[in-house]
Amino acid sequence: ARLRMHRDGEPGPVVMFSLGRPALFEFVDGATPKDPELALWLQHRSVVLYSGAHFKDHLYHRVTRVLHGDTPVMPRVLENFTLMRVSVSFRFVPEAHIKSLRELSAPAQDQVRGYVEQLAESSAHFRAQLDP
Known about the structure:
The chain is an alpha+beta fold. It has helices at about 50-60, 105-120, 125-130, and strands at about 5, 15-20, 25-30, 40, 45-50, 60-65, 85-90.
């Protein structure tokens, strides 16, 4: 129920919708990650918009806690799995930042190949990425 400290690579703003149990969303400086610069409790149906050099290029963000409890009740999709929270992010990625699988370094290709293979099962675009 946590998301490690990271930065997103795209240049534009990010809009994030949080559904389910409350979660602690923090912006931290990589040099001092124990002391968040900004911490927000995301409630069910929260919307967060962040952009600009400070939040996108300087600070990292993370989810450190998801509260336990009974509300809201999220549907059980998988056996032996309890859905606590869903976060959906929307972002603009300029065409110049979109690369084909072949344009990535060998380690980067290895890192994403399984995901591309999974997407290729239902997408002609991703099947074409796997062609030699």
